[in-house]
Each structure stands twice: as C-alpha cells, then as structure tokens.
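OP here, attaching both records as promised.
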Amino acid sequence: MQKTALYQKHIDLGAKMVPFAGFEMPVSYTGIVEEHNAVREAVGVFDVSHMGEFILEGSGALALIQSLTSNDASKLFPGRVQYSCLPNASGGIVDDLLVYQMAEDKYLLVVNASNIEKDWNWIKSHSASYDVKMTNISDDTALLAVQGPKAIEALQDLTDVDIKSLEYYHFAIGTFAGVENVIISATGYTGAGGLELYIPNADATKVWDAVFEAGKNFGIKPAGLGCRDTLRLEMGFCLYGNDINDETSPMEAGLGWITKFTKKFTNSETFEKQKQNGVEKKLVGIEVLEKAIPRQHYEILDANENVIGEVSSGTMSPSMQKPIAMGYVTTANSKEGTPLKIRIRNKLVDAKVVKIPFYKN
C-alpha cells in the first residue's frame, strides 16, 4: 500500500485508515456524520493526494485532449477548469476527469486514483500522431480539498491571491502558506464550496499545518473518505466504479451536459445517436421511503415488482436524515415521482425517483 505525504498526520490524529485505490487512506477521524456536518456548516479538510495528475504540453496537446474527451476543451483558457470524461470505444467511460488549462499549450489532467495507470496508458496509446509531451506528476503531487462555507474566509490570509473573487471552476497559481506555485482551484466534490490545493509533496505537511492554524476559529476539522462519499452523493455527483464505469455511457449517466458534438471524439457517433434516439436506461436519484439503506447492486423494481435496474450508490444522508441512492432504471421508469421498490435484505422497500441534487443549500 502506498502512503500519501500526509500519512503521519492522519495517524497522529487517530484516523481510521483503510486501503483505497492502492493507498492507505483515512476513512474517518471523529466520525462520518460529524465530519460531514463540519463540511456542510464550517470547514473540512480532505487529503486526496491519491488522485492522479498528468501534464500534457506541446502544440498538439489541445488536439489530443479534444480527440479523447467528451467535453469541448477549446472553450478553456488559462485559469479555467472543465469537468469531462474519457469515453471508450465500446460505449462506456474510461474515467471522468478535470481538465485545467495552465498555459496556451499546457494542460493538467486530474484523474481518479484507481484509474491512474489505465488512463495514462489510454491517453499514451492515442498520442503518437500528436506533438505532445506527457508527464505523470501523480507521485510528486499532494492535493488538499479544503471544503465548506467558511473555507474561503479561513484561508484568505494564507495567500495574496484574491480567493474570494475566484469563480467556481476557475483557478489561480500563486504563493500559499509560503509555498510558491500552488494551484489554488475553486473546485470540489462536496457541493459545499471551498478550494482544492495542488502542492509539491515536500510542502504538504507545511500547508496542512498552516490550513489548520488558519481555520481554528472557524470550526475546521479533518475529514475522511467516508464523509466525502456522503457529501458527493447528496449532490448526485457520480463516483467512478459505482455510478459510471467502462460499460455506462455518458448519456445514460446524465452527463450529456459534458458531451459536446461540436467536434469528433472517441465513439462520438454512438453517443450522438443516443442523444437523438434516447437510451434504454438512465441514472436517477432515489429517495427511500422507509428507514433502510440501499447499497450498490441492490435490485430496483417497478410498482409491479418487475426488476428494472440496480442501485449504483446509496447511503443514509446526514444532512437530510433519510436514505438516498442513485441507480440505473429503465427509461420508462425514470421520471420524477415514479414509485419504485428496492430489495433490501430480502424485503421490498418503497422508494421513488427524485431530482438530483438531493441536498440544496
């Protein structure tokens, strides 16, 4: 198991550590609900240094990205971030990712930890005819997600960058806590606001300590992967390996908004046909009407008890105090308000289709 540069900090804080995507990662410190609420109400800090980062630079960098990603990266400019995905040749998704334009011919791709090698090989295998240099900086880069409604106020004194005016999905590169060339990004996976900070591994501990010192009057808490999952699920954000994978199409997963047909990309003809003709199944939000928690792969049934799909993610929502889930159902059963049943421990539990996001600030 690999360890992030902040591993010892987690041990010193008494974190419960679990193996995740090849890393020893903190799942919780004081409890998932407490950490979840800290992020929703104040400030929580996640070590997400297990994520992967690739630099693509050269005159062919944009053309390569355009050919492999579903979104239109030509809309980017230095300081702008884009959510996108890497479709595969068989109608599924290699991974979802963030694309940062660092400079005119330089891009940063941020990919899921479990897919670093797969994504690198996929992109590399398509790069031969492009003037592009690829560098994998994953092992040298720490990533802190400082999330919550008080995060910006708590962190402003640590940097000369005016982070209060940094718009969502924009970033700046500047000095942060005395460390130069930190990528300060107004992004996150929680729906609670805040920043993500890309830092050299050598400076990770210094920045971690500075962030906690700056946040001590703002209710700051360390937060683990457990509440990262409950927070993202309340927002209806997809998790690779659960809600999207090599066999789910962006159109089925509700990712049509990041699938642009203004250019050709891997298997774009298939997805364009799906947009025109519709899909047979769709990812939907589900509210469970009884106190039972649905889990991945649990069967979803219609009102007549026919199996119509399965749960992809499920949890007890700490913010709303009720069980929620996402899952794939037949398109005929995907409309808001449609009654469903979920098989939980051999019992059929009542549920219904609801709009995503589940939680609204």
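Record two, same layout:
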Amino acid sequence: MDLGISNRVALVAAASRGIGKAIALRLAREGARVAICARDHEELHKTAQEIQNTTKTEVLALVADVTRPDQIKSLIAQTLARFHQIDILVTNAGGPSIGKFFDFDDAAWESAFQLTFLSVVRLCREAIPQMQQRRWGRIINIASTTVKQPIENLILSNALRLAVVGLAKSLANELAPYGITVNTVCPGMIRTQRLEQLLHVSAQMQQISFDEVLKQRTAQIPLGRLGTPEELADLVAFLASENARYLTGTVIQVDGGLVKGIF
C-alpha cells in the first residue's frame, strides 16, 4: 500500500529509542524525511545514523528536552530551516514518574504536567501555523491506554494523559478546515524500557520475580503476548498517510485487546 508520504517531512519527538525510534524508522521507510529529537546526544545520533543507513532517507537529529519551551522553539525552527516544512508531527515523551497519589507533591505534579501535557501544547503551537499555511498536516499524539483504563501506580499518567486527549479532540475540530488531522495513539503493553521499568516496580511490590509479573500481565492480554514498537509504528504511519484523510479526533489503542471497555 502506497501511503503517499514520500518526501513529506516528519518530526518525531523522543525518538532515540523505543516507540519514537520505531515510528521515525517506519516513516522513513515510507520515504518521509525525518527530524528526530531526544536528550541523549550519543544515543540520538546513533539512531539517526541507523535510520539513514537503513532507509537512505535524510534524517536530522536535534538534541532537545521537550519540557523546555526554548528548546521546543529551537527544535521547530531548526527543522523548518532544514526542510522548510513539517507535514507530520508526532508528539511523544517519556512517561511520568511511577507512584500513587500521596507519593507526589506539587513539584512532582508540575514536572509531570510539563512533560506529559505542556510538551504537546508547545510542539503543536510551534508547528501548526506552517501546516495551516499549506492546508495539510498530520498531528499524532502518543499517549497510553491509561486514557481508556487507568493503570495502578500510574496516577500522574492516568490524570494528565486525559488532558492530551481533550486537547487533541479540540484541535481536531479547530484544524479540520485546514486539512489537518489530529489523532491520539495509545500504546498498551509494548515491549520497551519503560514497560520493563514498570514491571520491575510491580515485581518488587509483590515480592515476586520479573518473569512472574510478566507472565501475569501477559495473561491479561487476549492476544497472549506483548506488542512491539514496530506494530504501533504501523498504525502511526497509516494515520500520517493520505489514506487516513477522513480520520480525525480519534483515540486508538494498540494493546492486543487489553482494554476491556467498549469505547
């Protein structure tokens, strides 16, 4: 299937590893020119080189912390200086801290707010105007199945990722006249370093082994296994494509059937 994004420009945040890396690689395989950012210079440039070697597509690697508004402004400006446009924006960031309600003070909530919600607001604010001028764009937010089914010990994520969904739905309505779609993708149990961290915490709390926790969690998934970042990236590539031009304001989980709710 031709996704129609060859020579489009995609900016993927937090793309040095895991889900972000898989998305950037998938879009590059489709012929998109890709800008990626992360905080770790060495890992970021290693990933950029891997994507470039694999796909022969132009990749721009920019060190940036998405909790810093000045660095977001610079990230967008440098991407536009290099490619002159951003057609596809994938907002992504590491998950907020693990814990229950009384584990966190105001500073922890503020930090999580900056990472999980304001990073999306700021990336969109900087990228949208040039999409409006060209009357085409794709904004894809990476959230979590916590927006459909809260997860134990993830109070910060449970609360703040819902704000991202509200923002995305509002933006979808505002930007539709400009040919810009806005959708949210919700990873379930995707095998990443973040998931392994969560499982290790759960194992410690239950005083059982990592493998036992993994077996417990996998048993809750109807498809009977963890997902891969590449499987989630396939959906993002579709949402970024011409084929998804009538999809906007949606919230789609990639979870092997883990979420039990109807909606």
